[in-house]
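Sequence, structure tokens quoted for completeness.
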Amino acid sequence: TEINDPYGHPTGDAVIKYTAECVRDSLRKSDLVARLGGDELLGYLANPDPDYLSAVESRIHESISSNKERLRELLPDFTKTDEVLAKIGMTIGFAQMSHGDDFNKIYQRADEELRRIKKEKGTERNDNER
């Protein structure tokens, strides 16, 4: 909504691609990231420790703010780069895999963590905004 409504879906798609590239470039080769749907990305971090999780989040934020030229290349209207960059937001929810977990259990825990963080930040969307 922050990007699609004022700038159009091609710009929203460019921002998703840009964000996914920044996330991917912030991870190790053993980690994975994929687009789950809409503006949601799902990552799998192999054997993370708390320090690594904190470092990943910092690297992602740094990558998003420091690769302005790449975003400029992706946007349909490069003159809007600074405006669009200022609107890119991100919330990360981590969930640890336990023995016997299937994808749905892990995804549910990560989603609950994500919603908790968004609620704390005051950025949680209601279902009408999705």
